[in-house]
Design goal:
Blueprint lengths: L19 E10 L12 E8 L4 E6 L11 E12 L4 E10 L4
Antiparallel strand pairs: 1-2, 1-4, 2-3, 4-5
Protein name: Zn-ribbon domain-containing OB-fold protein
Organism: Phototrophicus methaneseepsis
InterPro entries: ChsH2_C, NA-bd_OB-fold, Thioester_dehydratase-like
Length: about 100
């Protein structure tokens, strides 16, 4: 659960985010942590959601052109395959808003 500073949220209260925001800042990861070597290089950004909070996320589906202030949208992508059974783990990433 994400809450602005100096605010109170009752336990169990939920909030739906639109999934849209803008790139606050970003970097290109050249030397990734263990387990992410096959994805390097990749873009990692701080995304300011339209509702205010800032989240850390990988930027995906891009040809390398991204800039601070670009509009982005959340998408669900495969993050990893784990274990002998090959369980697939999905999570959120962001991409530039289509048509922008």
């Amino acid at each position: 659960m994400v809450a602005p500073l100096n605010s109170t949220i009752e336990q169990g209260e939920s909030f739906d985010f639109s999934g849209y925001g803008e790139v606050y800042t970003y970097t290109v990861v050249q030397d990734p942590p263990a387990g992410f070597e096959s994805q390097a290089p990749y873009m990692l950004a701080l995304v300011r959601l339209d509702e205010g909070p800032i989240v850390t996320a990988q930027i995906t589906d891009t040809d390398g052109e991204i800039a601070i202030g670009d509009r982005v949208e959340m998408v669900t992508r495969k993050l990893a395959t784990e274990g002998r059974e090959g369980m697939i783990v999905y999570g959120y990433k962001f991409r530039k808003v289509l048509g922008s």
